[in-house]
Write a structure and sequence with these properties.
With 168 residues, this protein is mainly alpha-helical. It contains 8 helices and 2 strands; from the N terminus they run H-H-H-H-E-H-E-H-H-H. InterPro entries: Cro/C1-type_HTH, Lambda_DNA-bd_dom_sf.
């Protein structure tokens, strides 16, 4: 078994810079502004900028909040371990800062009247689901979309009795 290289300040800085670049790439891929992302993570825009640059002086909590706001997960592993490439994190109960229509086929079909954007706020997505509950096909809905709908209902719905999943 190969011995892992010792952690040096240079190695840690390089790792944080790489993680910061991944965070920035994810934010850009989700088409989120720095301000919106910072608000969702509960950090300032300046702190988000420092995270994206990979500055080691930012608290671990700020890093983790930013990762969570972007739907990312931080995993630690030993130097000799290789992270599982296909392993997906458990996103049960997770709500993204913006809901991409392309990832949720039934939401995309229900949001046919929405023009000029590829993403919705969680409140907008829940509103579309609730107004069009009669058109939902829960058997055909992918598991990840059902999980999103349930998370939105639990977090944002004022009246749990009118949940779309209960109507089916």
């Amino acid at each position: 078994m190969p011995t892992p290289s010792p952690a040096t300040p240079e190695n840690c800085t390089a790792l944080l810079q790489a993680l910061g670049a991944q965070i920035r790439s994810q934010r850009k891929a989700l088409r989120l502004s720095a301000t919106v992302t910072a608000e969702a993570a509960g950090v300032s825009r300046v702190t988000l900028h420092r995270i994206e640059k990979g500055e080691p002086s930012v608290t671990m909590g700020a890093w983790c909040n930013t990762l969570a706001a972007l739907g990312m997960v931080l995993q630690a592993h030993g130097g000799s371990e290789v992270p599982l490439a296909g392993a997906a994190p458990d996103l049960t109960g997770w709500i993204p800062a913006r809901v991409p229509l392309a990832d949720y086929p039934q939401l995309r079909a229900l949001a046919w009247q929405v023009h000029g954007t590829d993403t919705l706020t969680p409140a907008e997505a829940l509103g579309i689901y609730e107004r069009n509950a009669r058109h939902l096909d829960m058997q055909a809905m992918p598991a990840h979309e059902q999980a999103l709908l349930e998370a939105l209902q639990l977090a944002l719905s004022p009246n749990v009795a009118t949940r779309a999943t209960d109507a089916v």
